[in-house]
Here is the input.
Amino acid sequence: VWEIRGQEKYGQVTFDLYNRYGLKLFYYKGNQLRFDGMVNGNLLATGVYYYILNVPGSCQPFSGSLMILK
Here is the structure.
């Protein structure tokens, strides 16, 4: 499970997850983000995915990759 510790301090974050083709697979807005690799009730396939995380009060979005392993 991927989560941001202390995120309740920052207000509502937004989190977008994309596959390698740029297709948005997951969106979240709130202050309790926990991502377990499931999208629409299905576990994502093994591979690399890309995220953009917007945090209120931050100068710019955080972005990077995460790998799903089975």
Observations:
- The mean pLDDT is 90.
